[in-house]
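User: Quick sanity check before I run a bigger batch. Here is a single chain. Can you write out its predicted 3D structure?
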Amino acid sequence: MSEIVALGAVGADPAARILDSIYSVHLLDPAAQSGGAAGTSAASGNFADLIAHGLARMNAKVAHADQMVTQFALDGSTPIHHVTIALEEARLAVEMAMQVRQRLLEGYRELMNLQL
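Assistant: Done. Predicted structure follows.
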């Protein structure tokens, strides 16, 4: 377990820990749902690999939602609630990627403004 996750788990109430585990497993890592170990390989890599893996997961969520919408529009065999869930997962993934991008830019700007 990483230091950040361990620090977050110390003061967190049980409900928050359950929500965090659901979010990290189901929304961010589709391979973790099938029991794969893909989520652990990115955590042990360097920062660039971590960012690239996160962007790939976000892209997979968006592509899956697009596929679900297309399938629903063409033949209607996909239930609407599955389409809605896929769209919301994609929206959350894109929103999270935008927040990470914004924080990285803020950190970069702060480093560039440091007086040496």
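The two ends are 36 Å apart (CA to CA).

User: Great, the batch can go ahead then.
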